[in-house]
Each structure stands twice: as structure tokens, then as C-alpha cells.
Amino acid sequence: MPVQSPSDSLALLDDLVSRARSAGADAADAVLIDGVSLSLAWRLGKLERLERAEGSDIGLRVLLGKRQAMVSSSDRSQAALDELVERAVAMARTVPEDPYCGLADPSELARDFPELDTCDASEPSAELLLDMARRAEDSARAVEGVSNSEGADAGWSRSAVAFVGSNGFAHSYAVSSSSLSVSVLAGTAATGMERDYDYTAAVHLADLGLPEEIGHEAGRRAVRRLGGRKVKTRQVPVVLDPRVSRGLLGSLAGAINGSAVARGTSFLKDRMGTRIFAAGIQVVDDPHRQRGLRSRPCDGEGVANRRMTVVEDGVLQTWLLDLRSARQLGLRSTGHASRGTGSPPSPSASNLYLAPGPITPGEMIEDITDGFYITELFGQGVNGVPGDYSGGAAGFWIESGEVAYPVSEVTVAGNLKDMFLNLTPANDLVFRYGVDCPTVRIDGLTVAGR
């Protein structure tokens, strides 16, 4: 990569911002991202794909009064940077005014940057990733009933991020991630086939799940789904597996995103300070979690961030705000801006999770006479204005407190306002994805089958 050290990156960006100011910009900021990745695919005992990529991007944002423009480039030559400045300033002179744009006030900027251990210093070899993928697929194919494989994928990436603003902010940090997944099929074309998968991801390679365990779980899940049936349409208690329930938090994050609230396109736009979950429910966003997949020392505008309780005892406490949406709403940024090199900042969650409850998943279903345990959702959709929710689903029917038989080709539907209020979490929260949720139960959803 052209720039190797954080000091070199910061110096390059500082010079770029200074050039923009000299060219007429009232304010400017610049971000640089250097990235490297290694990935491979392994299927049926053979290597199908091996890729290594290196890339570098610079984004420059300039402001002339209340007009702003962003331009990005992967070319760091002096001529290219001169052109970058010229284009950005010219664009800013022609775009419409935005009364809410602008850099952070120096008083809002982060001054202390916690050490979050977000970068694994060692780069794995292709041979190591290949061995992980091979072991995962071999383990999955060894499960009795597994008949074919869609393969295993292993990957690693590292990104170095640097940011400089004319408001005095300058900081750089690095992040890495590793992942392993495997997907297999069970059954035959004559009797019916089912597919399932398992997946592990972590900042540090050493924190990944064991390949043999990931593979075995993928095979077990696929075989368990054989013989799926439809069920009669009815309203029943629904239990969502953690890899499915986390989607509800994604819907919550979208509904409390400051941009959606400011536009009036969220079903929670007027619910700040009111109950949206049952008493006792807590939702937390923690950008400073050690080795968190979405951890960051500050937000994308240099604003200080911190652990925040988004929902406390069922009551919505805050929106997720960047500077622009905060100004629209007459509030202060909550430090949730994210950005790339080619677009302005926008709000997003970091390590978002639903706090666990006191009961086990087994205890959660033991009083259900008829219910649906969902392990996969597909084609799901949310209408963000009224909060309507629907999607195809597969999983297992619950009878008399026990998982009875697999279910497929059904849909579930409800409204997120009601779903949140009727949600109960189990005690099995595990941090796996960056947006994490335990098993949850929601009473009164409509399951549509035959």
C-alpha cells in the first residue's frame, strides 16, 4: 500500500485539507482508508477461489458556507490530489445549500481514545485459511444425512483509517476481522433437500470458533430440517433463534436512526421517552467494547462516542445521531456518525445488543402449547413508516413445550410496535455478529401456511 505509517497518512491528509482551504474552502475534512484482504472458497475437497486484494482510497469533503461536496480518489500522486481539491471546491460552489451541514465544533471532538484491541497484528497465510475451510467442510460432510456441500469460505481483512479536519481533529486507528462459514445440504432430490449453515467472525483470528465445531453445527442444522411441513394459518407464540432475532435489533436501529427520524419516515419518530418494550428490557450500544466487531475510538466526524443505553427498562432513551441529523432535530450528536471516502457521514449503530433475560430458551418454550421456533427468515421486509413486518420463515413447530417437527414454506407477520412490546429475551446472549440478541419470544404473531 502506498502509505504505511499512521503518521504518513495524517500528514498527507493534513496537507490535503490545507490545500482545500487555500483553494477557497471555508472548512474541509479528509479521510484515508488503506485496506488489505485475503479470502478463499473450498468446496468438495477442492480450492475454488483464492483472492488477495489491496486498496487505498482518499475522500475529501469541502464546505463553502452551507454548501458541501465530497470527492474521492485512489490516486495519491500530487497531480491527482491537486485535481481532487479543484473538483471538490468547484462542486461545492454549484450544489444547493444544506443548512445542517458542517464540521464538529472543537468542543465536541474526541480527546481521549481508548485502546480497544481492534486489530490483529498478524496476517494469516493462505495455507492457514485453507486448512480452516477444509476442516470445517470435512466436519460438516461427515454428519450423517448430509448429501452435498455449497462449500466453506474463510477470510481475513485489515483496514487502516486516518481522519483530519480543519477543526483541529486528527486521528488514526486500525481494524481487522476474520471469518469462517460453511453451508451444506441434506437429503436427496427424491425425498427432499434442505440447506443450512454456520458462521463465525471475530476481530482476532484466535477468537474464531473451531472449524470442526462450525462444520458439525452446519451439518446438524441441515439434517434437522429434513421433512419440513406447512402448518395451518394461526396466531401463536413465536420464538426466534439468536441468528434470526438479531434482525429485530437491525429494525430498531433503522427506526431510531436520526436521518429517518428527521425525515419523519420512522414509526418511532415521536416515541422518545416513551415505552416501546416491556419493563425490564435493555438495549445497549457500546462502541468501546474490547475486540468488538464494530468498535471504534470515535465516530466518523471525530465526535466523542461512549457506551449508551438506547432502551432502559423498556423506555426509548435516545436516537442515533450524527451532526447533521442532530442539527435538524435541535439536539447534539450522540457520536454515531459513520462514513466512507465517497459519501457524507450518516448515523449508524456500533456494537448493538439486547441484554439477556433471566430464563433459558428451554424454560421460554415449556408453557407453549402450539408455537413456532424460527431458525431462518428470508425475503423479509419492514415498512419503516407504520412498522409492518413480514417474511418467509423456516424452523420447528412447538407442541406441549417441546420442539416437535420441522416447518417450512410459511410466513410470519406482525407490527414491530406490537412485537417490541411483547418481546421476552432468554439468557443466552453471545457476541457473534456486532448486532447481537439472545433467543427471544414474541406472543401473538401470525404464522401463515395452509
Please render the helix and strand layout as text.
Blueprint: H1 6-22, E1 27-43, E2 46-64, E3 67-73, H2 78-94, H3 126-141, E4 146-165, E5 170-188, E6 192-202, H4 211-224, E7 234-240, H5 242-255, H6 258-263, E8 283-285, E9 308-312, E10 315-316, H7 323-329, E11 337-338, E12 346-347, E13 352-354, H8 361-365, E14 370-383, E15 388-399, E16 402-415, H9 416-421, E17 423-425, E18 435-436, E19 440-448
Parallel strand pairs: 7-14, 13-18
Antiparallel strand pairs: 1-2, 1-4, 2-3, 4-5, 5-6, 7-19, 8-9, 8-13, 9-10, 11-12, 14-15, 15-16, 16-19, 17-19
Q: Can you describe what's shown?
A:
- The protein has about 450 residues and is α+β, with helices and mostly antiparallel strands.
- It folds into two domains: about 5-220, PmbA/TldD fold; about 230-450, no CATH class.
- About 25% of the residues lie in helices and about 40% in strands.
- The chain is built from nine helices and 19 strands.
- The chain has helices at about 5-20, 80-95, 125-140, 210-225, 240-255, 260-265, 325-330, 360-365, 415-420; strands at about 25-45, 45-65, 65-75, 145-165, 170-190, 190-200, 235-240, 285, 310, 315, 335-340, 345, 350-355, 370-385, 390-400, 400-415, 425, 435, 440-450.
- The protein has a six-stranded antiparallel sheet with strand order 3-2-1-4-5-6. Strands 7-14-15-16-19 form a five-stranded mixed β-barrel. Strands 10-9-8-13-18 form a five-stranded mixed sheet, with helices on one face.
- Strand 2 and strand 3 form a beta hairpin.
- Helix 3 packs parallel to helix 4.
- The longest helix has 17 residues, at about 5-20.
- It starts with 5 loop residues before the first helix and ends with a strand.
